[in-house]
Amino acid sequence: MKVLANDGISKSGILALEKGGFEVITTKVAQEQVANFINENNVDVILVRSATKVRKDIIDACPGIKIIGRGGVGMDNIDVDYAKSKGIHVINTPASSSESVAELVFGHLFSGVRFLHDSNRNMPLEGDSNFDGLKKAYANGVELRGKTLGIVGIGRIGQATAKMALGLGMKVIAADSFIPQVDVKVEFFDGQSITTTIVSQSLESLFKESDFITLHVPAQDGYIIGQKEFELLKDGVGIVNCARGGVIDEVALVKALDSGKVAFAGLDVFESEPKPEMTILMHPKISLTPHIGAATGEAQDRIGTELASQIITLLS
Fold first, then answer.
1. Pick the catalytic residue: 70, 291, 302, 306?
2. Could you tell me which residue ranges the D-isomer specific 2-hydroxyacid dehydrogenase NAD-binding domain spans (predicted)?
3. Does residue 273 carry a catalytic annotation?
4. pLDDT at position 94, please?
5. 291 is an active site residue
6. Element spanning 287, H or E
7. pTM, entire model
8. Is 89 exposed, middle or buried (0-12, 13-18, 19+ CB in 10 A)?
9. What is the pLDDT of residues 255-291, one digit of tens each?
10. How do residues 297-313 score in pLDDT, each as one tens digit?
């Protein structure tokens, strides 16, 4: 059987699949050629990340597909229900990238509170001629310790983020329509651990109480944070989105940044991805990454081996 990993797969995933008797194809096929390639090469399984879309047209055109796999959590680039209605297995790897995404959240938080994203732009330009000026410009940093982190969506990634926040000495609050409360276990290198219970509260109260907000929700029909929600936030709040583009109104975000209502934002995902708006890309108060939440070697190894395990189980 043949597996097309159109958006790539880790070496460990390839080895596990080959050991299970599968041929793995890692050729990057253009979106408009995916269906033809699958049929011409008798592909049984297509694996994607966020780049390739597997919609109704491909599903209808490729009756030989047995499994559609998503390396990661969200499956908004796959017509999941339609595929299942055609008897196709749809799989993903919800647990594999949680720690990597959570660490990126804190990369953006640390960058924001200490102006790293902006100082890294300006030090090469002015570091030799305006050192004291830059030192003064970036002198008003704040600590994360003791501050309140509001987590919107306390699923696997939200919980991984909560653990890191607790380890830093932050107060953690959460809002989640589907998880009323969760026990979060913070484990240490020597085998010791502590467990704390986080009870979900209303979004409105989270917005009013949080010093920093991080979003961990799937793609939405509307904004989680739009103009009305920005008005509820504390002055000087920091916001991070490593979830999905389109859950924050970027026009309202820029206004809030310009007014000082929001001190900084950290964005890994964008409304108009893969062509983010220039006003976002050039804003001095936004820390930017190009949708790399799960892009660590460790996460990709876990994703690859987990996909391989599920495929082998389903088709053996």
1. 291
2. 107-293
3. yes
4. 85
5. yes
6. strand 286-288
7. 0.89
8. middle
9. 999 999 999 999 999 999 999 999 999 999 999 999 9
10. 999 999 999 999 999 99
For residue 246, CA distances in Å to 77, 139, 161, 219, 311 come to 14, 33, 21, 7, 32
Q: What do you get for the CA distance between the two ends of the chain, in Å?
A: 10
Average pLDDT score over the chain? 96
Q: Are 55 and 31 in contact (CB under 8 A)?
A: no
> What pLDDT is recorded for position 176?
98
Tokens 């996460």, residue located: 299
In angstroms and rounded to an integer, the radius of gyration of the C-alpha atoms of the chain is 21
Q: Which of 126, 209, 273, 277 is catalytic?
A: 273
Number of DSSP helices (H) and strands (E) in the chain, helices first:
13, 13
244 is catalytic: yes
Tokens 């509170």 -> residue: 113
Catalytic residue among 244, 250, 302, 306: 244
Residue 264 parent element (H or E): strand 262-267
